[in-house]
Amino acid sequence: MAFPIVEEGDDIGQQIIDSVLSLSYLIDNGDIFVIAHTIISRAEGLEFFLPDIDPSPFSEIIARKTGKDPNLVHLITEEAEKILKVQNNIIITKTHHGWICANSAVDQSNSKPNCAVVLPKFPSKNAKKIGKLLAKYFNKQISVLISDTHGRALRRGAINIAIGSFNFSVIDNAQGREDIFGYPLKTTLIGLADEICSAAELLMGQAGEKVPVVLIKGYKQRSPISCIQEMQFDDEKRLFQ
C-alpha cells in the first residue's frame, strides 16, 4: 500500500483504513498486515534531526573508532541496553527490546535529510492498537506484524524480521507433524513471523518504493497465538556469543 510521507502525530491505523478503501481491497478473516516500523516511529516522534544532538564523551570515543558521526553514535548508544562489539564501522548492540542487531537498528535510510529513525519503544503495543482498530472497522479477525530490516551474522544480505506482533502465531511449532516419509518432526520450530515479514519485504523494497504496508492473504495459522519475545533467545542460550 503506497503511503504519503508520514508525519509526527499521524494515525497509522486510520491511514491504513483509508488506503484499503481507496484501493477497494476486500478484507477477510485471517488477513495479515505487515507494517514497516519506520512509519510508526515517525508518527511517534522518533525521527531525530542529527545536528540537534549533543553527543556524550562516550559516543565521541566510539565515533572515532568507527568513523561514524558522533551524533548518530549517540542515538545508537542511547537505544542500546548493552554494546556487544565494535568492529570496523559496525556497532553490535542489544537493544532495550532485547534484539541483537547492528547499530541498535538506528536507520538513516528512508529518513528525512540529516535525520535518523529509531525503533518504536513498544512495537507489539503498536501492533495491538492498530490491529484492534482494523479488526473493529472491518469486522474481521486481523493479524498485524511490525517489521524491520536486519543483517545476518553469517550471511550477506539483509532481510525483514518481525519486531512486534498482534494476534499471530510468531512461532509455528511443527513438532509431531510427519515429513514426506512419515517420520514425526522432533525439534522443528518455524520462525513464521520473520518469514512473513521477509515475504512482505519483496513488495516493500528498501529504497523509494513508498510501500510501508503489505497485506497478506490466504495463510492459515496452525499454531497458537504467541508473543514476539518467544523468537528471541535468552542470553545464555544464544548459539553465538
Any overview of this molecule?
Helix content is 28%, strand content 22%. The radius of gyration is 19 Å and the shape is globular. The chain has a 4-stranded mixed beta sheet. A 3-stranded antiparallel beta sheet has the order 3-4-5. It has a two-stranded antiparallel ribbon with strand order 2-6. The model has no long low-confidence stretch (mean pLDDT 90). The protein has 2 domains: 1-46 and 120-232, CofE-like (60s Ribosomal Protein L30, Chain: A); 48-119, CofE-like domain (CofE-like fold, Alpha-Beta Complex). The protein has 241 residues and is an alpha+beta fold.
Helix and strand pattern = HEHEHHEEEEHEEEEHE
Helix tally?
Answer: 6
Distance between the termini: 39 Å
Level of helix content? Answer: 25-40%
Q: What is the C-level CATH assignment of the largest domain? A: Alpha Beta
Summarize the structure.
The protein is of the alpha+beta class. It has helices at 12-23, 37-43, 57-66, 70-78, 123-138, 192-204, and strands at residues 31-36, 47-49, 80-87, 90-95, 100-102, 115-117, 142-150, 159-166, 172-173, 189-190, 213-216.
Quickly list its features:
CofE-like fold; 241 residues; alpha+beta; 2 domains; globular; 3-stranded antiparallel β-sheet; single chain; 60s Ribosomal Protein L30, Chain: A; 4-stranded mixed β-sheet; 6 helices
Explain the layout of strands and helices.
Layout (H helix, E strand, L loop, with lengths): L11 H12 L7 E6 H7 L3 E3 L7 H10 L3 H9 L1 E8 L2 E6 L4 E3 L12 E3 L5 H16 L3 E9 L8 E8 L5 E2 L15 E2 L1 H13 L8 E4 L25
Parallel strand pairs: 1-7
Antiparallel strand pairs: 1-11, 2-6, 3-4, 4-5, 7-8, 9-10
Helix pairs in contact: 1-5, 3-4
